[in-house]
Amino acid sequence: MKTTQATTVSLRTSHKNRKARNYGVLAASIAAFVGLSLTAADAATITKANNGTNLDTGASWVGGTAPVGVDIALFNATVATAGNINNIALGSNIAWGQLQITNPAGPLVILSGFVLTLNGVAGVGIDMSAATQNFTFNGSGLTVTATQD
Fold this sequence. Notes:
By secondary structure, the protein is mainly beta. It is built from one helix and 13 strands; from the N terminus they run ββαβββββββββββ. The strands form three sheets. A five-stranded parallel β-sheet has the order 3-4-7-10-13, with no helix packed on it. A four-stranded mixed β-sheet has the order 1-12-9-6, with no helix packed on it.
């Protein structure tokens, strides 16, 4: 497990309901504690909506439900306005299964005084294997319990 505190992390491209949410965070925490890797079958892919709403709220995501500790938070072409993800706030401490960046309209820049924890889905915490944009994290801490792709 790697944790950074009050630092900037930059990665560049290479060419339901509350109860269910709590169970997802609990499952991810147990998996991380025991050293197990979450599988893709455990994860739902939740797509970022084309807005600048804090990432901890359902309104920030297509379908109205924010991702939880076992889910993949996907930033793709649905984000058609670059300003909607350039300097976006977490809003609170968040745990996701994986952060996946494919082809949003602009670079993803997350800022906040909060911690983002990526538990890893199928062993991957940050998936930029198909990314067309860069990712920068300017938060209080980034914890990645899996590899970055």
